[in-house]
Amino acid sequence: MFRLIIPFMVTAILMPGVAYADHVEQLDPMDVAASRTKHSDRYRIDAGTLADTAPDTAAILRRVPGAGVNNNGPLTGIAQYRGMFGDRVNVLVDGASLVSGGPNAMDTPLSYIPRQRLESLEVYRGIAPVSSGIETFGGTINARSRLSRFTAGEQFEFHGDASAGVHSVDDGYSLTGLASVSNSAHRLHAAATREYGNDRAFPGGTVRASRHERDVYDLGYGFRAGSHEFSFDYRRNETGPSGTAALPMDIEFINTDIFRGGYKTNLGDIGIEAKLSV
Predict the structure, then answer these.
(1) What's the DSSP call for residue 41?
(2) Could you give phi then psi for residue 186, rounded to 5 degrees?
(3) Which of 26, 50, 95, 167 sits in a 20 to 30 Å window from 123, CA-based?
(4) How far is the C-alpha of 206 from the C-alpha of 223, rounded, in Å?
């Protein structure tokens, strides 16, 4: 004995009512006049306008539309832009592309420029130009340091810049100073930065492995004659014990020496620029 079950499906089709208007009103023509807004191909943030004292320069990217930072620790912020991050985003420090030398890429490019030494942070809008570097699929970010500048006269001028900051969240501090001597043909500067912070505190205790320590030293010289300009810069970065609270790996030390050289000139209306960094 068996049963045969035949399912039945009833489908109801509802036809919406259609109504036609008996009268169509003709609107008067409307003319709209506007001018194209000109904007820069770069988004620039001047560090002097910011009041925060966070040691990580990458944290400033949160102020850039479409940009962000993957913050693993106080000194290891990874730049992000429009969904891309890491090696897909071309990060320049004073026009030089830096390759990570520490383990697990914990010395990110922006960790080589202290927040207190930053002059400006620029992000190219849209597609980055070929002149900004290679591997720019995720855009280009250029961080510029405060350096010495040529003056207009032959008389040498002395300029100094110093800043200090403290933060209670980790009993930390930052000290930086820049001294320069320059005229219309020569410029020379020396700078030093000291940053320190203990593990960050919160009402329930402390965040383990969140301390940081970094010393940075700079020397630079530039020479200009006519339309020719030469520059030589040296930076010593000494990162001491620094934590990455988001990862099971901390920094014991990362010491780096960076040498940069540059040349600029003009041939008529054509500008020529060459850079070398090691």
Answers:
(1) S
(2) -130, 150
(3) 167
(4) 50
Phi/psi zone of residue 19: left (φ > 0), alpha (ψ -120 to 50 degrees), beta? beta
Residue range 13-27: average pLDDT?
60
Across the strands, what pairs with 121?
A: 45, 143
Beta bridge partners of 260: 233, 277
Return the pLDDT at 181.
97
pLDDT value of position 10: 46
The token pair that represents 15 in the structure block: 């036809």
Give residues with Cβ within 8 angstroms of 145, minimum separation 6.
93, 94, 113, 117, 118, 119, 218
Give the integer Cα–Cα distance in Å for 239 and 213. Answer: 6
Q: How far apart are CA 42 and CA 128, in angstroms?
A: 9
Whether 117 contacts 146, CB under 8 Å: yes
The answer to whether the Cα torsion of 121, 125, 131, 134 is positive or negative is positive
Using CA atoms, how far apart are residues 154 and 141, in angstroms rounded to an integer? 35
pLDDT band at residue 11 using 50, 70 and 90 as cut-offs: very low
Residue with tokens 């850039």: 64
Backbone angles phi, psi at 70, to 5 degrees: -95, 100
The residue type found at 9 is M
Instruction: Point out the least confidently predicted range of 38-42, 58-62, 153-157.
Output: 38-42
Closest among 255, 244, 251, 252 to 70, alpha carbons compared: 244
Cβ neighbours around 128 below 10 Å, total: 23
AA identity, residue 200 = R
